[in-house]
Amino acid sequence: MIKKKRMIFGVVTAEANSIEQRQIIKGIARFDQCVGIDTIIFSNNYNPNVKEKELFCENKIYDLILSDEIDGLIVTSESFVNEELRKNIADYISRKTIPVVIAGTYLPEWICRTVPSSIPVMKTTLRILRITSSKSTDSQK
Length: 141
What we know:
The protein is of the alpha/beta class. It has helices at about 20-35, 85-95, 120-140, and strands spanning about 5-10, 35-40, 70-75, 100-105.
């Protein structure tokens, strides 16, 4: 296997085309570029509250969370309105041994844990989120 040159953070969200999600993703991606981290966005386009067979394939994108290439995850918890989808993603995340930062409202599906070697990655992620949220607040004034 070829060794990666840069770290990769995954941003796990739903309906990334919504204005709130775009602002969060834009801030994370800008910061990541500045510090030499690649960013991958895992998102569906439609985020219905009820399960629809027609949209099943669209949510297969979240299977990629299980990739070994990802060094950390940032999850926007509030974006997932479908409880079953939240549980599936929480299951995927629970199988990972990388740092995971849950941003947003507490929801019981999201289990937080600390991986000792991940503290520097988590600190960087939290800095990204602080900067992103402060810029979003400034732009709304």
